[in-house]
């Protein structure tokens, strides 16, 4: 694998940060400074050093976050907006990456890990891992609207559908829907509902597969338990 990818897989930093370290001449392979981030290396055999210290694989970390609205799901934001990494400030962690995304305006369950195989397994479209969302809309849906939403929509050449759409509760002018997806396209729910002129007021992810958000406070993070990890291995 490439040197930058190896530094990321070892849990030191993101690939983008690795590119910067390499460009600054801070990375050595077998004792020699390397400035080519595409250099092929074997992290299990080659001695890789950053700033004179050998890089070894970090312990595997699996986290869940209750992401608040307004945070972006990136490590570094060029617009200097708050990021989900702000939720990890009190934890002593190796570098971790989000498993998938929640856009800035969305809330709820987000997983983060430094286990790339675990992340790839959850993100693999072939897994059809269900993701459950509670969505507040600026409308009172009737059966006709529900039928149109369940039929899906084609937006910018993409066919957008949901596994299920049900009414959770209705108020005087707004309602909450429970929407289940088994694929995750960019802004999937917002684009699907927008195609039917339905305004999304809030969008909260409450479950990923068998894992539920539960009572985790907004803006907080915690490690997954052994039992929770076992749910994904089943």
Kindly describe this structure:
By secondary structure, the chain is an alpha+beta fold. The protein has three domains: 3-54, Structural Genomics Hypothetical 15.5 Kd Protein In mrcA-pckA Intergenic Region, Chain A, CATH 3.10.290.10; 62-126 and 211-231, Pseudouridine synthase I, catalytic domain, N-terminal subdomain (Alpha-Beta Plaits); 130-208, 2-Layer Sandwich (Alpha-Beta Plaits), CATH 3.30.70.1560. The protein starts with a helix and ends with a helix. It is elongated and about 70 Å long. The model has no long low-confidence stretch (mean pLDDT 91). The chain is 21% helix and 29% strand. The protein is built from six helices and 15 strands.
Task: Provide a brief overview of the structure.
The protein is α+β, with helices and mostly antiparallel strands and 234 residues long. Helices cover 21% and strands 29% of the residues. The strands form three sheets. Strands 5, 6, 7, 8, 11, 12, 13, 14 and 15 form a nine-stranded mixed β-sheet that branches.
Chart the SSEs and their pairings.
Layout: H1 3-9, H2 15-23, E1 27-29, E2 32-33, E3 48-50, E4 53-54, E5 62-67, E6 97-99, E7 107-113, H3 116-123, E8 131-137, H4 143-151, E9 153-155, E10 158-160, E11 164-170, E12 175-181, H5 188-194, E13 200-208, E14 211-212, E15 221-223, H6 226-233
Parallel strand pairs: 7-13
Antiparallel strand pairs: 1-2, 1-3, 3-4, 5-7, 5-15, 6-7, 8-12, 8-13, 9-10, 11-12, 13-14
Helix pairs in contact: 1-2
């Amino acid at each position: 694998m490439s040197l930058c990818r190896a530094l990321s897989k070892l849990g030191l930093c993101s690939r983008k940060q690795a590119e910067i370290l390499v460009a600054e001449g801070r990375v050595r392979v077998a004792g020699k400074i390397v400035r080519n981030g595409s250099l092929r290396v074997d992290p299990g055999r080659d001695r890789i050093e950053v700033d004179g210290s050998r890089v070894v694989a970090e312990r595997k970390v699996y986290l869940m976050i209750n992401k608040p609205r307004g945070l972006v799901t990136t490590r570094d934001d060029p617009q200097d907006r708050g990021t989900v990494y702000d939720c990890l400030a009190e934890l002593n962690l190796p570098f971790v990456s989000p498993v998938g995304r929640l856009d800035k305006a969305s809330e709820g369950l987000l997983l983060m890990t430094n286990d790339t195989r675990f992340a790839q397994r959850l993100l693999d479209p072939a897994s059809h891992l269900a993701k459950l969302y509670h969505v507040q809309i600026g409308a009172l849906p009737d059966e006709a609207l529900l039928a149109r939403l369940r039929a899906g929509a084609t937006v910018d050449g993409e066919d957008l559908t949901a596994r299920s759409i049900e009414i959770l509760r209705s108020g005087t002018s707004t309602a909450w829907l429970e929407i289940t997806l088994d694929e995750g396209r960019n802004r999937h729910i917002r684009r699907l509902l927008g195609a039917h002129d339905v305004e999304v007021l809030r969008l909260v992810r409450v479950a990923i597969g068998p894992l539920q958000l539960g009572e985790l406070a907004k803006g907080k993070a915690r490690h997954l338990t052994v039992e929770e990890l076992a749910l994904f291995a089943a």
